[in-house]
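Milestone 3.1: sequence recovery, worked example.
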């Protein structure tokens, strides 16, 4: 993502990425969670990190039961929770999304299934597709002890299926979430023809709709 923000010239250089295949093109078939968070009245939140938050936001905005998705930074301090500092890869933040959802419509476990199967590649370490660095790592920030237990159990469950062909790199972490700058919010919706969105994020959204038709808006 950094490359595509630095300059118009960088967009031309990004054309070389167009031939690079990746999980962004498809969903990985994985089972539903064996253990889920029980539905409770009221809205709940989930915080997930998996590469550039533009694509994560775009995928989860299309899920039935999701009321709001906010792009932001998780795992570091408030003082350095801004794009310039996070881009140095020295702040311990991960680009993440905070998902506000109705658990009576979509469960936490279902959100995790979408996260692992199509929203990002959980086998990549400190990067996703064209983006490299720890701010693009695969990480879950559980908001409750129940979420932590479910996420840990699902990672073990998926590891047993060997559906990805490589070890799952996703870690369970802790730390506050801070919203990103206004220009990052709803980025894919506002910039549907942006080179990065067209190459990396629109395929994820299409893959989600194909793999989870009953969950797509």
């Amino acid at each position: 993502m950094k490359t595509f923000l630095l300059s118009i010239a960088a967009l031309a250089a990004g054309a070389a990425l167009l031939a690079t295949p990746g999980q962004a093109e498809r969903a990985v078939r994985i089972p539903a969670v064996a253990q889920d968070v029980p539905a409770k009245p009221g809205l709940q939140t989930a915080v997930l990190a998996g590469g550039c938050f533009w694509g994560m936001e775009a995928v989860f905005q299309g899920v039935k039961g999701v009321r709001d998705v906010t792009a932001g930074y998780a795992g570091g301090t408030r003082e350095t929770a801004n794009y310039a500092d996070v881009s140095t890869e020295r702040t311990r933040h991960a680009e993440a999304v905070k998902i506000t959802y109705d658990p009576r419509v979509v469960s936490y476990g279902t959100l995790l299934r979408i996260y692992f199967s199509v929203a990002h590649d959980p086998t990549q370490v400190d990067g996703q597709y064209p983006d490299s660095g720890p701010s693009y790592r695969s990480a879950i920030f559980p908001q409750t002890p129940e979420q932590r237990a479910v996420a840990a159990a699902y990672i073990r469950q998926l590891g047993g299926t060997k559906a990805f062909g490589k070890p799952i790199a996703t870690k369970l972490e802790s730390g506050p979430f801070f919203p990103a700058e206004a220009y990052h919010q709803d980025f894919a919706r506002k910039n549907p023809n942006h080179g990065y969105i067209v190459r990396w994020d629109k395929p994820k959204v299409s893959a989600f709709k194909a793999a989870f038709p009953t969950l797509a808006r």
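The CA atoms of residues 50 and 138 lie 4 Å apart. Residues 6-22 have pLDDT under 50 and may be disordered.
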